[in-house]
Design goal:
Blueprint: H1 26-35, E1 46-54, E2 57-72, E3 75-81, E4 90-97, H2 99-103, H3 107-110, E5 114-115, H4 117-121, H5 132-140, E6 146-151, E7 172-175, H6 185-195, H7 199-206
Antiparallel strand pairs: 1-2, 1-7, 2-3, 3-4, 4-6, 5-6, 6-7
């Protein structure tokens, strides 16, 4: 159970196959925490939950729990899990960079990075456990940012694809949603009910950052793959000027 009672458990649905138990090593018996270092793991304490889809495959969607480390004022690096409990499975990674760092990339490289403004202004990206005011401040730092996300394990059902009990196949480049109605409504409702989150007050709170929002590349990449969607305030494609 999380230390903060307002962070509700979100359990994985997949337990990997394998014999019970762990590695029986003499060093571990003597205390690996004394003999080894876990320094690179320190600082992954920014927790946000959002939704991803596979780039080019709008029906292949999933919920992702990000545990992120602030590298500096312009970069975060995140490890992704399918839940927030001790048995959660590691399913991927995401790097988040500022608009300035994104602009320094080649055009070919930029094609692998998705925009974040919809996730912010739709209220879909949440930081469980934080008061709305603090969460809003966090989201303000993500306005105009970009992410590069690879999923290595689809441990939950995604559209017509069943859950895998092991990380099989090639890593998949993930993409962001960029209009209201692109996230599967059942997927979003399940997350919101289980974690007791509501996007509506978040939209209102984050609207104060709309004057910061600039057009982003990639907003229109999957626009035509969805139907029945509506524009999100503050979300415009940098190439064609359309929401």
């Amino acid at each position: 159970m999380p230390l903060n009672p307002t962070v509700h458990d979100r359990r994985t649905g997949v337990t990997p196959p394998g014999e019970p138990g762990g590695f029986e090593l003499a060093l571990l018996d003597r205390g690996a925490d004394v003999l080894q270092t876990s320094a690179p793991l320190r600082g992954f304490d920014v927790y946000v939950v959002g939704f991803h889809c596979v780039k080019g495959e709008p029906d292949v969607q999933m919920e992702a729990h990000h545990f992120c480390k602030v590298v500096n004022a312009e970069m975060l690096q995140c490890v992704l899990f399918d839940g927030n409990t001790a048995d959660a499975n590691l399913i991927g990674i995401e790097y988040i960079v500022s608009e300035r760092l994104f602009d320094s990339l080649s055009e070919a490289e930029q094609a692998s990075w998705h925009p974040h403004n919809h996730e912010v202004f739709s209220g879909e990206l949440v930081a469980p456990g934080l008061p709305i005011a603090v969460e809003t401040e966090l989201m303000g730092h993500l306005v105009n940012s970009y992410g590069k996300t690879w999923h290595t394990w689809h441990s939950t059902p995604m559209g017509s694809q069943p859950a895998h009990d092991l990380p099989i196949g090639d890593p998949m480049l993930m993409w962001s949603f960029n209009r209201e109605g692109e996230v599967d409504s059942a997927l979003q409702q399940d997350r919101n009910q289980a974690m007791r989150t509501d996007p509506e007050p978040r939209k209102e709170s984050r609207a104060k950052y709309l004057d910061r929002a600039r057009p982003q590349r990639g907003v229109g990449t999957m626009r035509d793959a969805f139907t029945g969607t509506t524009p999100t305030p503050g979300v415009v494609d940098a190439d064609d000027g359309r929401p």
